[in-house]
Write a structure and sequence with these properties.
The chain is of the alpha/beta class and about 400 residues long. It is about 35% helix and about 25% strand. The protein has helices spanning about 5-10, 55-65, 115-125, 130-140, 155-170, 185-200, 215, 235-240, 245-255, 270-280, 295-305, 305-315, 330-340, 385-395; strands spanning about 10-15, 20-30, 30-40, 45-50, 70-75, 80-85, 100, 175-180, 205-210, 220-225, 230-235, 260-265, 290-295, 320-325, 345, 355-360, 365-370, 375-380, 400. The longest helix is centred in the middle third of the chain and has 16 residues, at about 185-200. The chain is globular and about 75 Å long. The termini are far apart.
Length: about 400
């Protein structure tokens, strides 16, 4: 860590534990690339940045990491405060506390993958004391089988893991990722995402610039929509899927892929009842069904005599209902009294308007239920959608009260 007058002039200590941008502005000539951007990244969270090409996403990452300095605004990094404009020679570098992985992987072709990862530690004289930590990372990222290959012997997905682990080797507190899955297929992207969740759980704040909405929304705690250098909308992933007012955001979400959508529709009383019984048969034991907007006797009535079969099967397989209810009745009271271990029931506040009944199943299917003379089920299998609605459930749960019969 550097000391001396430069720090006292250009980096002041504050009691913060976050990466926070305030009114960041960046121009290239007359072109405004970042326009008064405000963004807060907390440790142990994932923030996704989406938006059309040329909107300033990569420039924002460079500004947050001080690789390309803004012309105005300020940046707080835990206990440091950078105020712009400032010359690059006069700042306390944030690296490796902040690490960036760009779309271009920058792996040395003449070194093995292991040596590519070890090199930054070796030049700092830190390799020996971090050997055990590196082995933990290799295990976490499932790299033991290819870690001693050369880059030309490894797949793009394997090289991408090398780039991530190399950034993590220096123990950053904030990890900024620029389109790191653009060259990967869906399976490899999901592998990378699963590793990012593990990193987040270790307390690292992660920022992801992503073109793939499925990747951007899955497991993100916050999403920012950037257009013409300005953050147009920031919120939870589900807020983007439920957006009804901002036409620009709606059009963008509708124009990009949510990944593979497997949509099935079941219409009529017989299909409605058969679907729910079949769902329990396909879910493994000890699974869960998350219900947003339980309607009490409305649902039980639509199940008719099939409900007895459904109820017996659910209890037998120990499939838990996590339910937020608008309405409840005698059957809900019975379930709570007789089988509390598989019925986590909560009552939504009156201030939350009644919406369509939604189920999120543990197999990443989202179910929209429509009641009436012809009960209808629309089932969508999509992990990003399921993850987004699970965030929605957790937010609503915080404002709900436990059902006590």
């Amino acid at each position: 860590m550097r000391t001396g007058s430069k720090r006292s002039i250009h980096a002041t200590y504050q009691k913060n534990n976050m990466l926070k941008a305030l009114n960041l502005t960046k121009k290239y000539g007359d072109r405004l690339v970042l326009n008064d951007v405000n963004l807060e990244i907390n440790p142990g969270t994932i923030t996704s940045i989406i938006g059309p090409s040329g909107s300033g996403k990569t420039t924002l990452l460079k500004a947050l990491s001080l690789l390309d300095l803004p012309q105005s605004g300020s940046l707080m990094l835990d206990d440091l405060n950078y105020t712009f404009p400032v010359e690059i020679k006069d700042i306390v570098p944030p690296w490796p506390k902040v690490s960036v992985v760009f779309q271009q992987l920058f792996v040395w072709p003449h070194l093995t993958l292991r040596k590519n990862i070890e090199l930054p530690l070796e030049v700092r004289g830190l390799l020996n004391e971090n050997k055990d930590y590196l082995e933990e990372l290799y295990t976490m990222f499932d790299m033991k089988g290819f870690i001693d290959r050369f880059p030309n012997e490894a797949s793009i997905g394997q090289q991408q893991r090398v780039a991530l682990v190399r950034a993590l080797a220096l123990r950053p507190q904030y990890l900024l990722l620029d389109e790191i899955t653009s060259a990967l297929d869906v399976e490899q992207s999901e592998i990378i995402l699963s590793h990012l969740v593990k990193i987040k759980e270790k307390g690292v704040g992660i920022v992801i610039v992503a073109h793939d909405i499925n990747f951007a929304l899955s497991s993100a705690d916050s999403v920012c929509f950037l257009e013409n250098g300005k953050i147009v909308k920031q919120g939870k992933p589900y807020e983007f899927l439920l957006e009804t007012e901002n036409r620009r955001v709606i059009n963008f979400i509708n124009s990009v892929s949510l990944g593979e959508l497997n949509v099935k529709i079941y219409s009529g009383l017989a299909e409605f009842q058969a679907y729910h019984v079949a769902l329990l048969n396909r879910l493994p034991e000890n699974s869960s069904i998350t219900i947003i907007g339980g309607l009490g006797n409305t649902w039980y009535g639509s199940m008719g005599e099939k409900y007895r079969e459904y109820d017996g099967l659910r209890i037998k397989k120990h499939i838990t209902w996590n339910m937020l209810m608008y309405e409840y009745g005698d059957e809900d009271r019975r379930l709570f009294k007789e089988h509390p271990e598989v019925n986590n029931l909560f009552v939504l506040p009156k201030s939350i308007g009644n919406m369509a009944n939604l189920n999120v199943n543990s197999d990443d299917t989202v179910v929209l239920q429509i009641f009436g003379p012809t009960p209808t089920i629309i089932e969508i299998k999509n992990k990003a959608l399921a993850d987004s609605y699970m965030h929605y459930y957790k937010d609503l749960l915080a404002h709900s009260t436990r059902f006590l019969g």
